[in-house]
Predict the structure.
Amino acid sequence: MAKTKSSRRWLDRHLSDPYVKRAQRDGYRSRAAYKLLEIQARDRIVMPGMRVLDLGAAPGSWSQIASHLVGSRGCVIALDLLPMDALDGVTVLQGDFREASVLARLQDVIGDMPLDLVLSDMAPNITGTTVTDQSRVIYLLELALDLAHTHLKPGGTLVAKAFQGEGFDAYLLELRRTFSRVATRKPPSSRPESREIYLVATGFMAKGFHP
């Protein structure tokens, strides 16, 4: 099947992207690695010994970064609907965590120890219909927050990809009720034309916890 003009443009842009070339040179699985590295440089969200859950992990560049930063005393769990090649120091789970069986597997891996950090680079399949796409974005953000409520330790951190639009302000308000500090970040490696931003929510206020 012949490539469409839009797919050719995307491929040309992708192959000429300096972050794509840099990722290949540095051994990262995708250019997204630099988004996390740039957030890390500013906010210091990942520290040695941490327990980290990476949602929407495939192909694995964020898990690569997190595993390196937490070191041998830490733990990284990667979860995605898509298959993901194994990574040293990372427990990889494939499945939809909205399903009870997948959530049970995740709970078994997490165990009784709470998480220090939940990362979510999840994004929905784009339909091209703004209202539908934005509602799917907010739904994924809500899922990430629900999981953080269940598994984050007091004082823990959630980092999630978001797109401004319908429902964003309400979600941001909920984050601010739940975390002591919420910042928005647009990493330099995020393409300028992309509407994506990252919400960095620190100081999880679990029930009965007051920072």
Remarks:
- The beta strands are 51-55, 75-80, 90-94, 115-120, 152-163, 179-185, 196-204.
- Residues 56 and 122 are 5 Å apart (CA to CA).
